[in-house]
What we know:
The structure holds two protein chains of two kinds.
Chain A: E1 2-6, H1 11-22, E2 26-33, H2 51-64, E3 68-72, H3 74-90, H4 97-116, E4 121-123, E5 128-131, E6 134-137, H5 146-149, H6 154-158, E7 160-161, H7 169-178, H8 200-208, E8 213-217, E9 223-227, E10 252-257, E11 262-266, H9 268-271, E12 273-278, E13 282-283, E14 292-297, E15 305-311, E16 317-325, E17 333-338, E18 346-356
Parallel strand pairs in A: 1-2, 1-4, 2-3, 4-7, 8-11
Antiparallel strand pairs in A: 5-6, 8-9, 10-11, 12-16, 12-18, 13-18, 14-15, 14-17, 15-16, 17-18
Helix pairs in contact in A: 1-2, 1-7, 3-4
Chain B: E1 7-8, H1 19-29, H2 40-59, E2 67-70, H3 73-91, E3 97-100, H4 106-118, E4 122-125, H5 136-143, E5 149-153, H6 167-176, E6 181-184, H7 196-199, E7 203-207, E8 218-222, H8 248-263, H9 265-286, E9 291-292, E10 300-301, E11 304-305, E12 311-315, H10 321-330, E13 333-334, H11 350-354, H12 359-363, E14 365-369, H13 376-396
Parallel strand pairs in B: 1-13, 3-4, 3-5, 5-6, 6-7
Antiparallel strand pairs in B: 2-8, 7-8, 9-12, 10-11, 12-14
Amino acid sequence: MRVLAAMSGGVDSAVAAALAVDAGHDVTGVHLALSPDRQTLRSGARGCCSVEDAHDARRVADELGIPFYVWDLADRFTEDVVDDFVAEYAAGRTPNPCLRCNERIKFAAVLDRARALGFDAVVTGHHARLADGVLRRSVDLAKDQSYVLGVLTADQLAGAVFPLGGMTKERVREIAAERGFAVAAKPDSHDICFIPDGDTRGFLTRRLGERPGPVVDAATGTTVGQHAGTYGFTVGQRRGLGVAVGDARPRYVLGIEPVSRTVTIGTAEQAGVTGVRTGPPTWTAQAPRLPLTAGVQLRAHGASVPCAVHPDDGGGLRLVLAEQQRGVAPGQSAVLYHPDPVEGDRVLGQGTITHAA
Amino acid sequence: MTSSVPVYLDHAATTPVLPEVLAAMTEQLGRVGNASSLHASGRAARRAAEQSRERLAEAVGARPSEVLFTSGGTESDNLAVKGLYWARRAADAHRRRIVVSPAEHHAVLDSVEWLAKHEGAEVAWLAVETDGRVTPAALAEALGDGRDVALVSTMWANNEIGTVSDVAALAELAHGVGVPLHTDAVQAVGQVPVDFTASGVDALTLTGHKLGGPMGAGALLLRRDAECTPLLHGGGQERDVRSGTLDVAAIVGLAVAAAGAVRSRVGRTAEIGRLRDRLVAGVVEQVPDAQLNGPALDDVVAGGPGRLPGNAHLSFPGAEGDALLMLLDAQGVECSTGSACSAGVARPSHVLLAVGADPHRARSSLRFTLGHTSTDADVDALLAVIGPVVDRARRAGLGRR
């Protein structure tokens, strides 16, 4: 195949590109320039969009002897990922920008362009297994990224190659070291690439300004504190609420109402939900017949819980969880898996959480 | 990827080293000696450097004492722009305006902008014709009475669209109001007649690797009466304007290359021009809406070529330059889209924007440049693939809406 390897400058995408070459593919490397104001050097261990990262990617491509280009997708990324991220928080939801980037940039803008230029697929360093159109969790469950790929459709998966899903992150680093890649020991990137200092609340404050409002205790309906902006909160959040309620029991964010700027908090019992509603789902294969039973993962780093999946009246999904879950945050994706302890859990599809009900 | 040798159509980026340059440099590299040393080895090195200075001076119509060896075009441009600015301002604090063309190389543009940001310079942009040329009328307009002007910098030949300007006429005009003129002639030497003394310019940038010489070796030709404040301080080499141990082997290579390029110019550029004309005609035959940027192929200025003989710069409406470059690269054909930032992100050419092209046209362009090793087979190879490549790039669009 003629494949395009998306190379961030990190160790995963470097090894993915190398394995694609080993597999006999005709590989071209591409670094995606996603930030309109690129920094010369990485700040700390985070981020993937500095000139230094582009240099790291180019070094690996040169060692592999493959062509390498930089594609400027900063405008698309800003519009589809960064602005969407800010708008979602402003609307009281909790977005997942990595999922959005996979959905709209890597396996949309990049894949479309790659196909038009004559490539068959895009290779990335995501930790997930993909064979015969079936997407499964990585063998390295601690590094599994199937959640942020759960939004991909059958057509997108047909144009994707994930060489790393069958190995651990440790093995990836070993391969990089064996090949003498300078990025073998490069720290993992964390969190959100466009917030290199990791301060999401500070980033949102700069974008949205201070929007103070009340923190209300659900049990009494009384205002127990003030906050500087609802975008600083996520449903299910426990730490950093900045309020003290009479008893010593922990409190969780139950709801965020952006118009009145109200953050509602409550006890663990109040925070638990068993019913989840989503928007219209996407499926990794032909849409399955509903209802069905599946495992559902409700946030990027969470366990899968058994659930029954029903259609709801509005074209979305109604999930009935087998056990109570806290932290069912609107805006996050509910990714459905068919449990398979032998071959690895198979991704069925996902819907964006609209509310608990 | 093709396994055969790539078809190299990017001679304006750099051109292969001439065999006689390689031989001369190899010989010199085998010898010990610092040209500043007083002993026999030092004297031998100095002799080689000074012979090269004389040889280069003769090739470009300068006096040997007017040749300052540098590390190349970027350093020469920085030295001329900053050095002349500082010296002129030191002599008269009112001289803060720098008259410059927006189509200059970044080594000039960024130097000027740095002076504006940090050293109190004011930038007076020259109006540029749609073919990239700076006219005497435009210069007269920008100079005014010249009393507040530190210097003029305007290139002899444009590196992207190949436009040759009448630098002698511009220098005469600047001198009429007492202003010195620097010209970046990196692309001009060896391609069109360049005579430093006859042109009247005060400072001229040239570099070795565009002539078949080594990278990292260039010169600033600086009139003996031109005051230029140094950038590099140290041992006082090069008239005390450019300190640093002379890289004698590189200097030897530069001089051999310049002498060879000037000597072979007439016959070589006639052949290169023929190939270039074939290339443009062939591309336009395959892609009828392709547009030539810069002057007409047979343009004439001051009795000489109005366009560099090896330059073909074309826009392909509806196709992205970086997609075209990638597809041609995959077919083994090497060319350029113009400038890229340090991270490799393709930018619309500032030269095309300066001559009034819209950003789409600027982004859809490719530069093909021919040189001393180019053949009909190179042109044939491009013409064999350009049609399908443009079709494919047009279908690819870009991640823009």
